Amino acid sequence: MNHPKYFVVQFGALLAMYACLSSLLFVIFGIITVLFPNVAGQLYEDESARSSIRTGIAMLIVFFPTYLALMRVSNHWRRVETDGEYSTLSKWLIYLSVLVGGGVLLGDLVAVILGALEGDLTLRFLLKAGTLFLVAGATLSFYVLDLRGYFKQHSKHALYFAYGATVVVLGTVVCGFMQIESPEAIRQLRLDETTVRELDLFRWQIEDYYQQHKVLPVEQALTLPETIEGRRAFEYRVTGSNTYELCAEFSAPTPESEMAVPKLPEEKNYTWNHEAGWQCFDRTVVQE
Distance between CA atoms of 112 and 47, rounded to whole angstroms? Predict the structure, then answer.
């Protein structure tokens, strides 16, 4: 049982386990942040939480089945070759990983407490701290009991742990999906961001032409942005001696975290707050 292949499988299973724990906490903490927003927090907090949920879900989908498969192989070898006992090398590896994992989870606890001290919501703090203790406690308890030979005498109880972990992971993934946008919605938001960048580049092209010729260009004198896939083509219209209009199509309103509030009249030229659908923006060239 001290063959390198057993060590590699056991080590891989432990790495997969900690990847699962981290991703599970990413998703749960993200869900808590979305459901219990901190009004005193920064505007991008909600999007950051949803990004953590997406990352955690992707990691769980990959690492949880990997962990179950490696544990199945490892336990099969143990039953066949050592009657369910860990080798000395595997025991050292597990004890060391429990120590390292406990340190990591304590670090996460410090981060949760720090968030509370910096003004995080009390309820949100309690939910995150409770989640951390439940996840860490269940994991460490399983391995401590396993090392003591508990599951050798109560094999069905090990299955209860496995079934319980599967239910928790699946439930967390489902709840996570309920708090994030669909892949298609995310894609459309990215296209909205591309549209804004194209409009801003086109604005610079117009203003550069104006500064050189002291007159707004006709459409034929410019290179209009390429049409975004599945959307109406950009439009440009001159509305005065130094005013013009740019129009484009958007899938959704500007996210609150990206909403710009111009403080001076001239700053309006640099903001692209929009609603869903066809949107036109009035712009004025500042005459130098």
Answer: 19
